[in-house]
């Protein structure tokens, strides 16, 4: 049985150039682009009004913005190589200047992720490492995982903090135990560049995708491939799990957004309102019983969708 999602609202011309990254909290969605400002929209009102513009956040634009699960901290990486840490205070985002300065020496970072509690920041580096910093200890580096020299294009931490995974330009996918610092097993790669990796909410599955146009699901307890999801006609750029782990959202260079049923191992909804790249997709916090998601990309617009309800 397919699911139907309706166009809900959109923030047109949210940025003057491609939107590369979205991040959500329980009340807001943050967006980053090739322009210098970060934008923040409220998700608690139906028309998703602009709540804040963080001017001059990154001089030459930003390629990754992430939030912690508890919504108190955010991190962003600019095309100039700088990493910035943000705190949510008095209803708005302010830069934690000291932490940003403490992390000033990590300019080789590309993809980033934050732990659920916002304490740990993990990032991939251009020279093939995954590093982890303790933000509650002045940004002290506490882990350095070696990934055989391949540029890390994507990264994720499991919600319980036990595992960290990265996808690489070489097509390799690595998963490490944060407790032991070791790789429990080697995951079979996708041959072509991996552009996005994402742990399911319970941490039992890892989804990975990229230039192969296929989403691969791995069992994190064994490292085995348990499913291949095919349907996109171009690079897959972004993945995000629903809150229950029942569905996986994907965005692609083909301009399509797909919703996949994990139980059925099948696509249950496709949206294609643009022929331009979808760089980022995110499930939204539920408003009442309404389930929805947001997409953004080369059309410079943030589009919001909600599930159609019967009757």
Please give the structural blueprint.
Blueprint: E1 5-11, E2 19-24, E3 28-33, E4 38-42, E5 50-54, E6 62-67, E7 73-78, E8 83-89, E9 92-95, H1 97-102, E10 109-114, E11 120-125, E12 129-134, E13 140-146, E14 152-157, E15 163-168, E16 173-177, E17 194-199, E18 205-210, E19 214-219, E20 225-230, E21 236-241, E22 247-252, E23 257-261, E24 266-271, E25 278-283, E26 292-297, E27 302-307
Antiparallel strand pairs: 1-27, 2-3, 3-4, 4-5, 6-7, 7-8, 8-9, 10-11, 11-12, 12-13, 14-15, 15-16, 17-18, 18-19, 19-20, 21-22, 22-23, 23-24, 25-26, 26-27
Question: How would you describe the overall organization of this protein?
Answer:
With 311 residues, the chain is mainly β. It has a single domain (5-307), classed as YVTN repeat-like/Quinoprotein amine dehydrogenase (Methylamine Dehydrogenase, Chain H, 7 Propeller). Helices cover 2% and strands 51% of the residues. The protein is built from one helix and 27 strands. The chain has one helix spanning 97-102; strands at 5-11, 19-24, 28-33, 38-42, 50-54, 62-67, 73-78, 83-89, 92-95, 109-114, 120-125, 129-134, 140-146, 152-157, 163-168, 173-177, 194-199, 205-210, 214-219, 225-230, 236-241, 247-252, 257-261, 266-271, 278-283, 292-297, 302-307. The strands form seven sheets. A four-stranded antiparallel β-sheet has the order 1-27-26-25, with no helix packed on it. Strand 4 (38-42) and strand 5 (50-54) form a beta hairpin. The protein is globular. It starts with a strand and ends with a strand. 48% of the residues are buried.
């Amino acid at each position: 049985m397919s699911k139907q999602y309706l166009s809900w609202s959109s923030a047109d011309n949210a940025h003057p150039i491609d939107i590369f990254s979205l991040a959500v909290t329980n009340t807001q969605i943050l967006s980053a682009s090739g322009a210098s400002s970060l934008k923040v929209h409220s998700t608690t009102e139906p028309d998703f009004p602009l709540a804040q513009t963080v001017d001059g956040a990154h001089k030459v634009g930003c390629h990754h913005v992430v939030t912690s699960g508890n919504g108190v901290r955010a991190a962003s990486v600019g095309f100039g190589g700088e990493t910035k840490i943000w705190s949510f205070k008095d209803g708005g985002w302010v830069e934690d200047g000291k932490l940003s300065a403490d992390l000033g020496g990590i300019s080789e970072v590309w993809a980033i992720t934050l732990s659920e509690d916002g304490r740990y920041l993990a990032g991939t580096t251009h020279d093939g490492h995954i590093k982890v910093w303790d933000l509650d200890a002045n940004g002290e580096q506490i882990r350095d995982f070696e990934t055989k020299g391949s540029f890390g294009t994507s990264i994720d931490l499991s919600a319980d903090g036990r595992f960290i995974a990265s996808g690489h330009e070489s097509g390799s996918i690595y998963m490490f135990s944060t407790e032991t610092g070791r790789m429990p097993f080697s995951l079979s790669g996708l041959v072509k560049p991996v552009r996005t990796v994402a742990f399911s909410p319970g941490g039992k599955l890892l989804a990975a995708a990229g230039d192969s146009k296929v989403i691969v699901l791995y069992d994190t307890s064994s490292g085995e491939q348990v499913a291949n999801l095919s349907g996109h006609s171009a690079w897959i750029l972004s993945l995000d799990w629903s809150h229950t782990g029942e569905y996986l959202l994907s965005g692609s260079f083909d301009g399509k957004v797909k919703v996949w049923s994990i139980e059925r191992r099948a696509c249950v909804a496709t949206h294609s309102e643009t022929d331009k790249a979808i760089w980022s997709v995110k499930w939204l916090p539920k408003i009442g019983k309404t389930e929805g998601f947001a997409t953004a990309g080369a059309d410079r617009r943030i589009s919001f969708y909600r599930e159609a309800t019967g009757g």
